[in-house]
Aspartate aminotransferase (Prunus yedoensis var. nudiflora), 399 residues
Amino acid sequence: MSWWRSVEPAPKDPILGVTEAFLADPSPEKINVGVGAYRDDKGKPVVLECVREAERRIAGNLNMEYLPMGGSVNMVEETLKLAYGENSELIKDKRIAAVQALSGTGACRLFADFQKRFCPDSQIYIPVPTWANHHNIWRDAHVPQKTFHYYHPQSKGLDFAGLVDDIKNAPNGSFFLLHACAHNPTGVDPSEEQWKEISKKIKEKGHFPFFDMAYQGFASGDPERDAKAIRIFLEDGHLLGIAQSYAKNMGLYGQRVGCLSVLCEDEKQAVAVKSQLQMLARPMYSNPPVHGALIVSTILGDPDLKKLWLKEVKGMADRIIGMRTALRENLEKLGSPLSWEHITNQIGMFCYSGMTPEQVDRLTNEFHIYMTRNGRISMAGVTTGNVGYLANAIHEVTK
Ligand code: PLP
């Protein structure tokens, strides 16, 4: 008996496929600027010192009991403060339904499932372009997708007029997926003034803003500053949702620790919404993993460890900002006639270089440089040791 005869191999994930190809390349010059994971200036993965210290404190004290269905109460509480503000009235008024989620991906998926269950006829508006997995997440939750303008290829910046038009033209009460900061893949974020305008327009139309915040702290180096867009929306009195992740800003990628929150009208509604989020989680994974949550609550619950974390996040962001400058300067020094200003204008982990798929293929085939074919460079993979080689290769293929 063969039940699976008709099963075809799934297409390769465009991002994870890049790493596979990188690993298979024996060249000593090879560079991986595909995957969005932080590397130090030697190109090595990093475990933050605050995480090491939290692990030392946890060691031996951790029982292996299940967390509640909604996850670690302490972790969720600290996580909400990062997004909504340390002294947020909304937290005090218990207006936020929040559960621990399986990192940012799990938070988005849980929200998508919640959206489908309670607004079954709704759609989600997604920016063009976006993190590829957003499409998969809402597809598998059976929520129809629409797109809105975001990136302007000519200016390599924001298509603000297109974005605002799309907000206006969407049917009232639509769901909009927004990247809170450090937009992936473009590195293009609206300015504060533009966020204010976006918030106003979304409010006028009664849309529901859902923020994916996978990079809080990675854009400016300061998690507080990176929450600015959300704070603007809160000031304007929106009800909204947020997916938070500790993958990047605490380097807890494989721990799968994050949070989904939904701001409600009052405490009663928040209790109901939280119970329904838990109801969605129960048959999928029952309750979330304990270890990463304990690392996060240990760090954020201790003023000294939190201070250390803030310093280390800033260190990561600053190294990336430094590499943006270095890459641009190297390209300019090589005499490239093209404008590379966008490398330093863009923000966060990625640079949306503007290179074509054919140019990227040449980088890979001739220079052993691995990245996604949309021209996205993970700046976290750029180091003082390889930036010259990378700039030279980019110059060669864009001549
Ligand atoms: N959202 C965006 C925009 C991302 O870039 C990522 C990771 O690359 C995620 C969410 C989810 O990451 P994780 O599930 O590891 O927290």
